[in-house]
Amino acid sequence: MSGTRGKFNSRIGFILAAAGSAVGLGNIWGFPTQAAENGGAAFVVMYLLLAFCLAYPAFMAELIIGRHGQANAVESLKKISTNNVQRKFAFVVGFGGILCAGLLMSFYAIVAGWMVAFTIEPITTVVGADSASTWLTTHGTQRNLLFTLIFTALTIFIISRGVENGIERWSKRLMPALVVLLVSLAIYVLTLEGATDGLKAYLIPDTSRLLEPELIVSALGQAFFSLSLGTSVIIIYGSYVGKNENLVSLGASVTLIDVFIAFLAGLLIVPAMYVAQAQGVEIFRDGVLLSGDTLVLTVLPALFDTMGNGGIIVSFAFFLLLSIASLTSSISMLEAPVSYTVERFGVGRNKATLIMGAIIFTVSCIIIFNFSSLFGFVISLTTEYGQPIIGMLCCIFVGWIWQRSSLLNELKNGNEQIEYSLFWKIWPWYTKLVCPVAIALVFINSL
Ligand code: PHE
């Protein structure tokens, strides 16, 4: 590793940073609402299955590519290529991932901006600035521009500080705060009337829905999004991990934390929906559950309103939670293009961060000005197409292009005993054969 390259200083620093990337709007917003829309517990069961059987092996593939390459995604993939065609393919996959991360951030920052606006709203309500409260919670170009800018600036600030002082330090501060907030809110909501119905919907599976193709496709997409796969983000975080670390257990820890937090968020959101219903708030229209953003931006605030003064604190805590989770994810998205620019073009980190941040913010602005045509399009382009395809190609790299002996040697770094483990026996061929085929099948099905 060159002297100027950053590195995670501690094992826990890496785990919290990677879990910070993984845990985001996908867990706290996406997972519970998708579970609610797709038959509750049946979705939860399928999600758990796919997260561990497909997303975790793919996560390991990206992590090990990065740790071996000790460089940005393009360089890391090139290092395992042995001829020119493979190197070109490495560029396409690595650069595609970086592009995907940048595009993802351009819409993610808009949604995260809403979370910041909704966090401030309880404060303007307390001080009696009612018109400000209305402005903050009403969909509008000016509000969207301002809060996307604020959120992007926060992300730029952290990334410009580098790996240890930026990503690691802030993940260590923000992630524990997030868990405390989430657990406290879930405990509170579970004490309210109506929560038990929500708990039943969330935990008792309707097995007849388990194999519905739509449910399976949504669950896989959700698992890939949640583990930040197919965006080169995990490759780059892997490249900041030392050769003496046990990758298998690091990857498992991050996957477990990610799945656990999604599950916990479900314990908060799904019962909260039913509590809202018990308070007279509409959560179904024509028998169909209100869609994602209505749920988080209308139903839950309506529930908080019914709670009187306490609701103001709960609302503040809830949206602060979502803002924090978004920030630890967006820093990983920005790190992908920044690390590439720094290493490929020799640009200083501050400058690279500003340039990339400005480009991404410009794309966000274009989306904001053409919201109805571009917002949904960019989301589906990145999460439904980009992520699964690039994630699958990374598995192909590990399974088919990387020389087996070199791959096994890399796995042994930091884990001499691995030869005797189940992971060693299963994962290499599983990543080679099962993962690409399964991902491709689910993807084709989704078309
Ligand atoms: N995993 C993040 C979430 O759940 C989103 C993300 C996707 C972050 C891709 C980085 C890269 O919200």
Q: Specify the biggest β-sheet.
A: 2 strands, antiparallel
Average predicted confidence as pLDDT: 91
Shape: globular
Number of domains: 1
**CATH third-tier fold name:** Amino acid/polyamine transporter I
CATH architecture: Up-down Bundle
**What is the β-strand count?**
2
Number of helices: 18
The order of strands across the largest sheet is 1-2
Distance between the termini: 42 Å
What is the CATH first-level class name?
Answer: Mainly Alpha
Integer-rounded radius of gyration: 21 Å
Beta strand %: under 5%
Give the helix/strand class.
mainly alpha
Distinct small-molecule ligands in the complex:
phenylalanine
In N-to-C order, the SSE pattern is HHHHHHHHHHHHEEHHHHHH
Helix content: over 70%
List the uncertain runs. none
What's the arrangement of secondary structure elements?
Elements: H1 11-22, H2 25-37, H3 41-69, H4 73-79, H5 84-126, H6 130-137, H7 141-160, H8 163-190, H9 195-203, H10 213-226, H11 233-239, H12 247-278, E1 284-285, E2 288-289, H13 292-305, H14 309-345, H15 349-369, H16 371-401, H17 404-412, H18 422-446
Antiparallel strand pairs: 1-2
Helix pairs in contact: 1-8, 1-12, 1-14, 2-10, 2-12, 3-4, 3-10, 3-11, 3-12, 3-16, 3-18, 4-5, 5-6, 5-7, 5-14, 5-15, 5-16, 7-8, 7-14, 7-15, 8-12, 8-14, 9-12, 10-18, 11-14, 12-13, 13-14, 14-15, 15-16, 16-18
The structure holds phenylalanine.
Task: Offer a concise description of the structure.
The chain has 447 residues and is mainly α. Helix content is 80%, strand content 1%.
Give an account of the 3D structure.
There is one protein chain. The longest helix has 43 residues, at 84-126. A two-stranded antiparallel sheet has the order 1-2. It has 18 helices and two strands. The radius of gyration is 21 Å and the shape is globular. It has helices spanning 11-22, 25-37, 41-69, 73-79, 84-126, 130-137, 141-160, 163-190, 195-203, 213-226, 233-239, 247-278, 292-305, 309-345, 349-369, 371-401, 404-412, 422-446; strands at residues 284-285, 288-289. The protein is mostly helical. It has a single domain (2-446), classed as Amino acid/polyamine transporter I, CATH 1.20.1740. Phenylalanine (PHE) is lined by residues 21-22, 24-27, 101, 104, 225-226, 228, 231, 233, 329, 332-333.
